[in-house]
C-alpha cells in the first residue's frame, strides 16, 4: 500500500493506493456523524460499508441534475447533517455527480472518492472537478471541490472488461509524455505485466500518475493560471472525436488519437520533436488504444470550435516540447483546424 497527501483550498486530501476500501472506510467514517454511499448500480453489492448503500445510474445518462437532486433528497431522508459524509463508488461519471451533490448539500459536506475503473483511478478521482450535464451540454453545471480521501482498491479492476481496463492507460501515457519520462518508460517496459493486471506494477503506475496530476492541481486548482492545461493534452482533438462520432469511440481511444494528432500539430508548429508522434503511436498501440476511426471532418472541426479552452479566435493548446516536458501555446482556431485536417485526416 502507498499513500500521499496533496494540498487544496478545501484542506489536505489523502490518497490511499492498493488498500481494501472497506478497511479504509471503516476508519474514515468514525470521524463523521453519519455517512451514505452512492454506488454504480452494477457494483453496489460489492461495497463494504456500515452506512446505507444507494445504487445510482452511471454513465452520461446518470450524470444529470435530476440524479444530483435525488442524491440530495436521499441524503436528507437518511439524516445526513453538515458533519456527515458522502461516499462515491464507481467510474468517473458517478464520482462527478456524487462530488457535485456533496458540494451543494447543506452548502457543502465532505466526500470520499472510491474509483472502480482504471480511467477513474488515474484521472477522474483526483482534481476536484465535479459536475453534471444539462441543456444538452457536458459539465455545464459544476464546481471545483476536492474530496477528503481517495481510496484506490485494485480488486475492482479484476472484473473490469479488458477494453474498459486498457482505456485508462491513455491517461497514464499522457502523464508520461507530458510530465514524466520515467513513468512512460516504465509503462512501455512493463506493458505485458500491466495488461495482465500485476498488482505491484499497477500500484506503482497509479501512484506515479496521481502524484503527477496532484502536482498540477496544487498549483492551479481552479484552472485559472494555465498550468492545469497540460491535463488536457490530447483532449482538444479527443473530445472532438467523441462528439463527432456520437460517443461511439471510448474516451481512452479518442484521447489516444487526440494525443497523436496534437503531437503532429506540435511538430508542424515547431514545438514538438519529430519522433514524439511515433513514440506515442508505439506506446498507445501496446495497450490496443490505436484504432482506425471514421470521423466526419466537418463534425470534428465543429466540435473543436466549441472547445472550452477557446478564447475568442484563439485556443490554449498544451504541447510536448520534449518527452516529459510541456508548454502551453496560443494558436489561432483557424490555423489549428487547418493543421488538424492536414495532419490527422489519415490517422492512425
From TrEMBL:
<dbReference type="Pfam" id="PF01761">
    <property type="entry name" value="DHQ_synthase"/>
</dbReference>
<dbReference type="GO" id="GO:0046872">
    <property type="term" value="F:metal ion binding"/>
</dbReference>
<keyword id="KW-0479">Metal-binding</keyword>
<dbReference type="InterPro" id="IPR056179">
    <property type="entry name" value="DHQS_C"/>
</dbReference>
<feature type="domain" description="3-dehydroquinate synthase N-terminal">
    <location>
        <begin position="55"/>
        <end position="163"/>
    </location>
</feature>
<keyword id="KW-0520">NAD</keyword>
<dbReference type="InterPro" id="IPR050071">
    <property type="entry name" value="Dehydroquinate_synthase"/>
</dbReference>
<dbReference type="GO" id="GO:0009073">
    <property type="term" value="P:aromatic amino acid family biosynthetic process"/>
</dbReference>
<feature type="domain" description="3-dehydroquinate synthase C-terminal">
    <location>
        <begin position="168"/>
        <end position="309"/>
    </location>
</feature>
<protein>
    <submittedName>
        <fullName>3-dehydroquinate synthase</fullName>
        <ecNumber>4.2.3.4</ecNumber>
    </submittedName>
</protein>
<keyword id="KW-0170">Cobalt</keyword>
<dbReference type="Pfam" id="PF24621">
    <property type="entry name" value="DHQS_C"/>
</dbReference>
<dbReference type="InterPro" id="IPR030963">
    <property type="entry name" value="DHQ_synth_fam"/>
</dbReference>
<dbReference type="InterPro" id="IPR030960">
    <property type="entry name" value="DHQS/DOIS_N"/>
</dbReference>
<keyword id="KW-0456">Lyase</keyword>
<dbReference type="GO" id="GO:0003856">
    <property type="term" value="F:3-dehydroquinate synthase activity"/>
</dbReference>
